[in-house]
What we know:
The protein is an alpha+beta fold and 397 residues long.
Amino acid sequence: MSLEAEIKAVAREVGFDVAAIGRADPYVRAHRVLEERRARGHYPAFTEADIALRCDPKRLLPSARSVIALGISYLTAHRSRATRAGSDPKGQLSRYAWGHDYHPIMRARMQAIIEFLERRVPDLEAQAFVDTGPPVDREVAAQAGLGWYGKNACLYVPGYGSWVFLGEIFTNVELKPDPPVSLDCGDCDRCIRACPTGAIVEPFYVDPNRCISHLTQMGGAIPKELRPAMGLKVFGCDVCQEVCPWNQEAIVADRPEFQPLPEVGTAPSLIDMLTMTKGEFRRRFGPTAAAWRGKKTLQRNAAIALGNSRNPAAVPALARALAEDPKPVVRASAAWALGRIGGDDAYRALLQARERETDPEVRQEIEEALERVQGSRGTPAPPPPPAAPRPRSHAGG
Ligand code: B12
């Protein structure tokens, strides 16, 4: 058996679904695309700023000659059961956050491959990356022949569709590269048409500032004009993948590690999310890939989703969050949500909060929400209190 075939067999044994081999040459297209996106203000957040470092394996491992690109399918047989109605509306969690966080899982499995190589190759040098490292994982995978780009910019793996986490090992071992995958989307543009915020500005080009996945992960206040399009999504977004014909045929790998965790499921209670304690956050979301931006981000998203549910059952929890949550971004989002749900109780909660709120951005959200509710009630609100508001008793954060 060739070393390449052995590596692929070991990859399967340790829990990868696919593996392919590429040369450790510079990623010329990714370099150009990243420069262009930066010039247009679309450089993706949460990534290494040094483009040259991202696009040249030898900058990361000077002896690099080959790349082993790896993928694990996270598709399970479940569907998200998000619902806006009833006494306990449920949010929509994207598939990649249903089960255990893929980062430590993939790192451990790549380490097992490196250990195999160490036994087989003298003076092995190798470096593994997944997601948080400098490499552009999709480009590494595409160049190694693991898959091909869909128009939604996702990397599709033959058989598995785009429901695949990606990682790579750069190594000094000389390996025979695999041929590229020559598939494409043809005339289909369903993902482009389906994106709720129009984030796929052209084929293979996602404007990260509009992508709902980014909106659910960004810090601070979510741009107001994009909030309604987020619907019930509380972390990530799968729309461009769910509508894709390739993905309808994808193999359901149904791996145990990516089954929905009982504490969160596929559609967590929005009211529970909004009101969860630190301990509850750690217990429920801690093991998943949805935890890395912290509790505040998820609570902000839950408030927006509750607003989009337009469900009056959410008003008491939102009113409490507006009155009591120490984080301005959560209070601001709760105010927005109350304005979107409307009705007498929401109106009263907003008026009361206006008396006490000191944070200028939250106050602004309250005023706008009051205007919106008035619009639907037809009676003007009393003018805002003129005196400087009393300071809040707790710190913001
Ligand atoms: C930052 C980031 C994000 C950002 C920005 C995404 C973006 N499109 O730029 C946000 C938060 C929005 C995001 C969202 C998601 N992400 Co993300 N993300 C990343 C991260 C950390 C960096 C991505 C990056 O730098 N992109 C740079 C841009 C320029 O690349 P690109 O958009 O993919 O564009 C490429 C193609 O368009 C291609 N291209 C350009 N022009 C042309 C022309 C032709 C003809 C062709 C063929 C190709 C082509 O070249 C570009 C460069 O390679 C990677 C991990 C990593 N280290 O790479 C994960 C990663 C891309 N994300 C991943 C996932 C799972 C997601 C989500 C599905 C999560 C979710 N459900 O919400 C969504 C998908 C959104 C989408 N449609 O892209 C997976 C993707 C797996 C896969 N099979 O594709 C990755 C690889 C993480 C991992 N290791 O598994 N992500």
